[in-house]
Amino acid sequence: MGIKTYRPTTSSLRQRSALDFEEINTDNPYKPLVKPLKKFGGRNSRGHISIRYHGGGHKRQYRMIDFQRDKFDIPGEVETIEYDPNRSAFISLVKYKDGERRYILTPKKLNIGERVVSSNNQVDILPGNSMPLRYIPVGTLVHNVELRKGKGGQMAKSAGAGAQILAKEGKYAHVRLPSSEIRFVHLDCRATIGRVSNVNHQNIMGGKAGRSRWKRRRPHVRGSAMNPIDHPHGGGEGRAKGGRNPVSPWGKPTKGYKTRKNKRTQPYIVRRRSK
After folding, report:
1. What is the pLDDT of residues 103-149, one digit of tens each?
2. Domain boundaries in the chain?
3. H/E/C letters for each residue in the chain?
4. Dihedrals phi, psi of 163, to nearest 5 degrees
5. From residue 82, how far is each of 21, 198, 216, 219 by CA, in Å?
6. Rounded to two decimals, what is the model's pTM?
7. Is residue 217 a contact partner of residue 206, using CB atoms and an 8 Å limit?
8. How big is the chain by its Cα radius of gyration, in Å?
9. CA distances from 166 to 7, 107, 111, 120, 275 (A)
10. pLDDT score of 82 more than 70
11. End-to-end alpha-carbon separation of the chain, Å?
């Protein structure tokens, strides 16, 4: 998947870049696996804004993705590779031997017509195949990693993401996540072989503000540009740097402030992510 640029006939096109979508082979999703997706504009159930700078955007439909990969020992063939507006990775429509179709996350180097299989035993170490961590060799790159057996993949699902199995000790595997965090994951948890597709996603340049609006991102206002009543960093004569450590509009420290409170899973983290 490459990146294309545009002839600079306007100032926004001068900075804009986009994917060439060479891998995509259809514009029409598989209707039985599509459902409506309602917009909330950052509002909660009471209608109050709980997430600032959300709203607008293009209409979307949700594609139901098989994160559990629980169709065991039935081979499937990749029919299409599609764009999904709800995630940064591409998705693939897999037709299994019994006739059922499911969407999965597309791993890198998985092509149309290739075979994928999910099993509770060892299968070939090929992109798209899914199995428990106990059967995956040390050093392999995986994605869609489970945290709890049978719950479905929760880690390494975005474009270009890949977790690496560093070691196996007792009933746990040492897995290095894309954030560089090293974590214990039970050997019975499943993972899919390979790195997630669309590696160039992080290199795309929007080029204009409107492209962010299409993605439901409204303009983000700096705290130092506000009045003192609206933000702790606001006010002052001329351009000011805030005069204090970075905080939220409600005075809570932000950059570098630890917010983790889940003591139950703390023992499973070997090393926190590097800054």
Report:
1. 999 999 999 999 999 999 999 999 999 999 999 999 999 999 999 99
2. 3-202
3. CCEEECCCCCHHHHHCEEECCCCCCCCCCCHHHEEECCCCCCECCCCCECCCCECCCCCCEEECECCCCCCECCCEEEEEEECCCCCCCCEEEEEECCCCEEEEECECCCCCCCEECECCCCCCCCCCCEEEHHHCCCCCEEECEECCCCCCEEECCCCCCCEEEEEEECCEEEEECCCCCEEEEECCCEEEECCECCHHHHHCCCCCHHHHHHCCECCCCCHHHCCCCCCCCCCCCCCCCCCCCCECCCCCECCCCCCCCCCCCHHHEEECCCC
4. -100, 150
5. 9, 11, 21, 29
6. 0.91
7. no
8. 22
9. 45, 20, 28, 21, 20
10. yes
11. 29
Q: Could you tell me if 220 and 212 are in contact, meaning their C-beta atoms sit under 8 angstroms apart?
A: no
Q: Write out the two tokens for 175.
A: 């897995």
**Residue positions counted in the chain:** 275
Which residue type sits at 191? Answer: A
Quote the CATH superfamily of domain 3-202: Nucleic acid-binding proteins (2.40.50.140)
Residue type, 9: T
